[in-house]
Write a structure and sequence with these properties.
Its main location: membrane. This protein has 449 residues and is mainly alpha-helical. It is built from 19 helices and no strands. It has helices spanning 14-38, 43-52, 55-58, 60-69, 73-94, 100-129, 132-168, 181-205, 219-234, 239-248, 251-257, 259-265, 277-306, 312-320, 324-332, 337-366, 372-401, 403-412, 415-422.
């Protein structure tokens, strides 16, 4: 009998695999912030707790070799998806318990490590099951499929939570508190059902994934490979300037990422715009994400035409300067959905346009060498660390400053980005072939975070 996944078209498992990865990631690191806010947490707690869930995705290169050592990559994908589905179902059930928040945080924390393992394993299946030509052919499908995840989670499911809260359970949409539990329980049951269905589907169609060359056979071997990767990383020319670039380029975005949606749903008397979850889902999860994707496409074409070095500072301006739209909206508090949506679209479009330069810089300047994939993962890990640290403190700073002063602070936080961009080194001439990337650890994607 033919083994499941044998000679099956990648179109049957690449889109569903990367969508499932994105759904778990966005639910854990972004949608939870809105849920915490709905349940009555203040901005400081909601931003802090949701940002802490980014840690597992930041440090996943450290435990990636374990996925390479045991069983097959498909085995880890399926186990992770079953655990994620069961975990979200457990979260929905736990929300009816007294003192449920402590239980939720333990479950969310555990699921973040399971989700990071799913990323590692699914990336590994992609890299080792497809040859270089097929990887290039399906790269666009991979990226598009991942980006459907935020549309469904930040857009559709946030929208659904608001609809359920008001039209099914007949609660006041402007009031935050335990009344939101009913709506969010249904949302988490839906995520659980979708993830478990994807596990059943992937059991039939996903290939096992091959072993990469130089795969470690023991924990000691994995530790030696990681140790050598760290040593060679810090032996790179101008490494500390590149580390500063990787950590600080998106500093202002880290401060804005959690607080932007909070500003949208907070009541106007507190300085917010008083939008419902339905409108937040439409503006952020649909129009905002479409603007990011369009900006990323045009930014990539811009870099391809003119090169990265002469355009990097322009791309930095694109990422940072449009953040002023939130400062303007906090001052004038517009009531028109057109102007509110336009502000978000402008900020998201230019973020997508400029962030392309960050990812290309990591690929072309930071990553090349003996452990290209691993060093690229270190760079994206620094980006994730910045997002986690800024997210943890962002809500507390906003509560202390108020929205107007906080968004002014975000504009000040753009200055380090300009500095590290201006002094960013280019040790590798553009257009020259890099060293062969290792497959010891699975590659990172230029995910929208």
């Amino acid at each position: 009998m033919r083994a499941p996944g044998h000679n099956v078209s990648p179109l049957l498992w690449v889109p569903t695999g990367y969508f499932t990865m994105a759904l778990a990631y966005v639910m854990l690191t972004s949608v939870t912030a809105i849920m915490f806010k709905n349940l009555g947490m203040d901005n400081g707690q909601a931003a802090q707790y949701s940002s802490m869930l980014i840690l597992a995705y930041t440090i996943k290169p450290l435990f990636a070799p374990i996925v390479e050592m045991y069983r097959t990559k498909k085995f880890f994908v399926l186990c992770a998806q079953v655990l994620i589905g069961a975990g979200f179902a457990a979260i929905a059930l736990a929300m009816s318990m007294p003192g449920y928040m402590a239980v939720l945080m333990v479950l969310f924390w555990a699921l973040s490590f399971v989700g990071a393992t799913q990323d590692i394993a699914c990336d590994g299946v992609y890299v080792t099951s497809l040859d270089r030509r097929a990887q290039s052919v399906y790269c666009g499908i991979q990226s598009l499929s991942w980006n459907i995840g935020p549309i469904v989670a930040s857009g559709g499911l946030v929208y659904l939570s608001g609809k359920l809260h008001t039209q099914v359970f007949h609660h006041d949409p402007a009031r935050f508190g335990p009344e939101w539990i009913d709506a969010w329980r249904i949302v988490f049951f839906i995520v659980a059902a979708v993830t478990l269905a994807m596990a059943v589907w992937h059991l039939r169609v996903m290939p096992d994934g091959a072993k990469a060359e130089n795969t470690p056979t023991s924990l000691g071997g994995a530790a030696r490979i990681l140790g050598d990767a760290f040593v060679t990383f810090f032996q790179k020319k101008h490494v500390w300037k590149m580390v500063a670039f990787a950590f600080l380029f998106r500093l202002s975005i880290g401060f804005l990422e959690k607080i932007g949606p909070f500003f949208m749903v907070d009541p106007r008397e507190r300085g917010g715009l008083g939008l419902s979850n339905e409108l937040l889902g439409i503006i952020y999860g649909t129009y905002g994400l479409a603007a990011v994707l369009l900006g990323s496409l045009l930014g990539g074409l811009f870099v391809a035409k003119r090169g990265l070095k002469p355009t990097l500072f322009i791309l930095c301006c694109a990422v940072n300067i449009p953040n002023v739209t939130f400062l303007v909206m906090s001052i004038f508090q517009p009531t028109s959905l057109f102007w509110i949506g336009a502000g978000v679209v402008v900020e998201k479009f230019f973020f997508g346009y400029g962030a392309v330069g960050f990812m290309i810089y990591l690929m072309q300047q930071l990553a090349p060498g003996k452990y290209a994939t691993t060093h690229y993962a270190f760079g994206t890990g620094l980006m994730g660390l910045c997002g986690m640290l800024t997210g943890v403190v962002s809500g507390h700073l906003e509560q202390w400053m108020g929205y107007i002063h906080y968004f002014g602070f975000v504009m000040v936080a753009t200055i380090p980005s300009f500095i590290v961009c201006w002094f960013a080194p280019f040790p590798h001439p553009e257009g020259t072939p890099d060293s062969e990337p290792d497959l010891t650890l699975p590659p990172e994607r230029a995910e929208l975070r």
